[in-house]
Batch of 2 targets.
Target 1
Amino acid sequence: MPSQNDARAGWRPRHGTYWLIILPALAMLVFLYLVPLADVLVTSITDPKPGLDNYLLLFTSTSVQKTLLTTLRIAALTTFIALLLGYVVAYAMRAANSSQQRLMLFCVLLPFWISVLVRSFAWIALLSSRGPVNAGLMAWGLIDEPLPLVRNETGVLIGMVHVMLPYAVLTLYANMRGIDVRLVAAARSLGASRFQAFRMVFLPLTRPGLIGAGTLVFILSLGFYVTPALLGGGKVLMIAEYVAVQINDTLRWGLGTMLATTLMLSVLFALWALSRIIDVKRLFGA
Amino acid sequence: MVSPVAEPLVRFVNVRKSYDGTVDAVRALDLEVARSEFLTLLGPSGSGKTTTLTMLAGFEQPTEGRIFVDGEDVTDVPVEKRGIGMVFQNYALFPNMTVAENIAFPLRVRRVSRAEMTAKVARALSMVRLDGFGDRKPQQLSGGQQQRVAVARALVFEPRLILLDEPLGALDRQLREQMQYELKHLHQRLDVTMVYVTHDQVEAMTMSDRVAVFSTGTLRQVAEPRRLYEAPESLFVARFLGESNALSATVRQRDSGRCVATLMTGETVTAVMPAACATGSAVHLVVRPEKVLLGKAAQASPNRFAARIAEVTFLGDQTRLRLVVFGADDFIVKLANSAGQDSFAPGAEIDIGWQAEDCRALAE
């Protein structure tokens, strides 16, 4: 088989072979992903009639605006809480010895292996008015009546933070591991208290990690569907569920696809903005 | 060693440190650092020199014993309250701050006023010859410049004591030598006490008022560089500082600091004996390669032996001979090169000898 042809043509035949190998994946990507995506884009400006009427709803429809605001608020709160908790966990992981680190990493990753659906139902069971959390709090006498922890925004936040925490922890941990511990020691030797050394040296050095983890969690939070749908009890409407309702129930495909497009463009914009601030590849350990 | 006149600035009293509870990183350490002194802790890696420095800085607590600074027991004082400036091996400059902000850091945490801070930072910058570099980030500086920033940062708050942990380790040879003199001059100019850690004996010799030699957690000897070289108290010190010929021998006679010992091969040698050893005990006779006399000069010395030249190496300013003598072939002689000197050829027979005071009998 290897003929003089190959030898003469140099790298060209090999180049062609590589293309053949990725062709199935490429075809799948184009026909099952890019084409439908283009269809979504087209639908958003043609249904029910050609024009930007659907996009005008962003400025005129109160229900669309309310959904967008809810989405932004929940995503922002989720990001804030996940960063706060994730920072503490990542900091502890960094300070731990290697066997403790492995155990902590395992615990952080454990929820990844459990379906979001299962986790959501588990949270409903835990947080409902007769669930173990409320029962425990009442048994200790801390509260007299069950707290409304689920089927509302609180429930959505708890569920979403739980899902997002590993992303925050891992991103922050990757960043913190790159910080030389001797810098903190140096700060101490120069007269800084533990807190001053943290605030003036360590915290500023984790800024790229905070920005990266924050953007990642925020972007992922924007598109949440299952968790808010289940833990919100139908009262907390985020954009993904709103889109689903337009597509499945009210059949206003134009509105649904417009919101989907808006969401996608916002995410792309956020990623672009992030890439301007920090080196994304390094942040995610590439 | 103990100066009875002035109170030492630093005093280690019977300090022991063990990280794991079984092995001592440092043991039975009694060490004093005089005011305005440049003291170097010298030793191979794992000898306990860095542990000693770390305990003085306050990053580690001694397992036993006390540490005093300025007469005050600082053993339990936290790092930031000790008021000791430290220069780290990798400089540990804060990458999120400019050079000026780095140097201002110790002043900022001490809440020094802005005007005073600016003046002090400017003075520190010019002290290390980095005027005009204040607005750069540390990453934009060369290794030698970063080193100087680290020094400026350690002395800007006028600490009573500055610790330096192998600060020149990352620099190339030429820059190292230059920085050695710069640090030495800085020390003389500022009249500050410095404790310096290194594994490089030349560095220790160049800069120090006194050198403390460590091995396997034990302080072997503290002395001025010259005394350390010429009057080592142990074989380890003799070997660690410069080259030495060490011959195993048995003490036959002894009187007032001198002894006569017999080598394994039967030769008799007269030597100085700094520490009293019983007759019949095993010692190492240590002779510096440059103290060995050759040819005619050797004939007048009390210790005289016949040797054969195995190898001749020309080193520019000196010639190094490897000799076959005392049943081995690793006896080294160095002599300064001068005009009209005899030439040496491998295989030639030659007389060697040395004065009794140039040979020290050291117990193991």
Note: The interface with chain B takes residues 180, 182-183, 185-193, 196, 200-201, 204-205, 207 of chain A (CB under 8 Å).
Target 2
Amino acid sequence: MLTVSDLSVTLPMAGVPVPVLSGVSLTLPRGGSVGLVGESGSGKSMTALAVMGLLPPGARTGGQIGFDGHDLLAAPEAALCALRGRRIGMVFQEPMTALDPLMRIGAQVAEPLRRHLGLSRAAAAARAAALLARVGLAPPRVTPDLYPHQLSGGQRQRVVIAAALACGPDLLIADEPTTALDVTVQAQVLDLLAALTAEAGMALLLITHDLAVVSETVEQVLVMYAGRVVESGSTAAVFARMAHPYTRALFAASPHAAVGDPAPIPGVMPDPRARPPGCAFAPRCARAGGECTRTVPPLLGTDAHRVACFHPHAAR
Amino acid sequence: MKGSAWRSPSLLAGAAITAVMVAVALLSLVWTPYRPTAMDFVHRLAPPSAVHPLGTDSFGRDVLSMIMAGAQSSLTVALIAVAVGAGLGIPLGALAAARAGLLDDLVMRGCDLAFAFPALLTAVMITALAGPGAGNAMLAIGIFNIPVFARVTRGAARGVWAREYVLAARAAGRGDAAISVVHVLPNIAAVLMVQATIQFALAIVADAGLSYVGLGVQPPQPSWGRMLNEAQTFIWRAPLLAIFPGLAIMLAVLGLNLLGDGLQDLLDPRLRRAR
Amino acid sequence: MTGFLLRRLLILLATLIAASLVVFAVLQVLPGDPAAIMLGTGARPDTVAALRHRLGLDAPLALRYLRWIAGLATGDFGISYTYSVPVRTLIGERVLVSLPLAVLAIVLSTAIAIPVGVLAAARRGRAADAAMMGVAQVGVAIPNFWLGLLLILLFAIRLPWLPASGFPGWDGGAWPALRALILPALALGLPQGAILARVTRAAVIETLGEDFVRTARAWGLSRRAALWRHAVPNALVPVVTLIGLQFSFLLAGTVIVENVFTLPGLGRLVFQAIAQRDLIVVQDLVVLLAGSVIAVNFVVDLVAAWLDPRQRLAA
């Protein structure tokens, strides 16, 4: 249903176009689920914004994003507006700022309903109240006439989820939906997302920096680094082998997965304006050899498991 | 810093206009085409010509010379008014920031109170009752600059007071006044400079308003506001007389505003894109 | 909510009293004895003393202040020294000119500035934005009394559409009176509008960058719908606050602009009263104007708090 092929994005930084995504491809079948994993700056959020058609002004794109027969990169703005919120829903990272502080939460959830389904004010309000109850925000504790500032972060994220799911989309994009939340609330919100998407047969594109989070939630995983996919495949295959050194480092850095303390990855991701000519991870990689600093390793393998590395790990 | 200054067109334009204004004001002290007070009743209300580039007024005075002399008086009044405001307002604000609590409250309530009085209206009242003239105009405009500077200083200084090196200086036993002068004021000088530029522009408008109603610089010394007032009487016969002095005020204010905007952009790059 | 209102009202009252004290004190300090001025330079000292006594000017300062303030509280503004009529009557007539003028100017400036500011923000960085903000930058620099002269030149002399000066009063119908107020209101309102447009633009640009605008776009709202439904309402809080702050400038501007257009408003009354040392009128007028500034800002604070549920519900 969603097919991203060879997507590239450049953004102007101080007037100079800088590549932030190159050669990103992924396939998400109807009802399927894909996890995009990487550190901040790896390009995973930019991929989501490209699918939504909400890239920052001045962005240039290449490749195709096919959604149910539409090429989203070539689609006119009006067509994208008709898809957003209707067929594709999105949940953002920062629940504290994602909602309009001047608008009651019920009205905000009702907004996509009125926009896409043409519901009357009363009908939309009733549906919004039901949706809020479905995500666990029911009276008497939470009523639709509250304002965002009267809710906790987790409650606000539930409002954002209710609004994203309001029109029953075919695809839900969740960009770090739990990162800003308390640890205790994170699992609840993730379970809610998984339950709601499974129940409605909705496809899920889950973006996270926490590799452990995706292991239980999604069917396929794409690990991204510096704007490229470095390892991809079925969750089982990727976790079984973790062929790319970056994937292993990311897993070790996860607060949920590692045995003992999480180990931060040494070094920093290269500035997109000055990426090394070869593998972008080479400067931080213990296994890097001469060719790693000269040539970008191609993403090779089968649909079940691909890796872009000259010196991949064998099975764990 | 140097490179970015050249990329800001408003800073460059503002600095250029302001420099020209100051140069004209200084030049008028030693040279004007005619004596700005010299009357010539034969050539009253003459249109612009080679002899009188901007024409003559109802007394036959050369308008260009009067505008040049007007620049001098206008800039002088505004400069002293801003100096009065800054000279009293900055110490007050610095004091309020240094001594939080009652004194701070007192200074800030005082500022609130001062802002309740429409500034120009009160300046009109003060100059009218205390006697019209340049000196009282400077004072009347200056008084309303005090709370502006006090507020800005206090706001900016409080941020500095929270910084570690100030706490360190405090721990080392230095007094509030010494810390204010050595650490706080140099750090907020840029903010104060921007504010001073804005206040300078406002003071020029206020001075022109006062002299328009006859309460500023007294004749025979020319002033832009008075020129506009006199021009109004002859607006049917010589409309240009009502244009040139106004253009001079507008240019002076525009130059200072652009300069202020440019300085602000330079100080706060985050705002640059928003403007 | 009641507690909040009560506290604000107390502050309002305290500010008003402080303002009246300041006005009274300043007028005592400034030179000029009303009795001497009323009687002229040739008056005999005992005549002046008699008049001072009749006007109550020989009473102790504190008593005079209390008498005056008690009068104000009950609506008695005193008797004009020069016209020998109640100051209330004098002010009442002039308010009918100045208040409509101020309201018209605010309405004009807001009606122009907010759409211009929003439009410029929506098109930021493009030619339309640069053009509108260039005009606003110049507009900010034009003093209102000069703009008044320019408007007279253009719309009263070149194109004889509107009166250059004077005011026919409201008795002859609303239209002739409004006609006389159009140019003065433009002269007052346009420079204020230029400032307001710049602030509106900056505020909208800031809210356009907020996460909730992106959320609204993800719900399928068009750029335009997200702008008007989410970015603009959130930008209005600082804009409304600024409109309140501008009111003080507007009143001061009225004083000068009424002179440009020889309108019989409060501004002209201030000048006449000062020229004739009619101190009681000056005193009343300044307190009245300061009071209205304080009151308007009080109302604007309430409006801003009402617009923003975070403030409304916290209060």
Note: Chain A touches chain C at residues 52, 54, 77-78, 81-86, 89-90, 92, 94, 97-103, 111-112, 115-116, 147, 149-150, 160, 163-164 (CB under 8 Å).
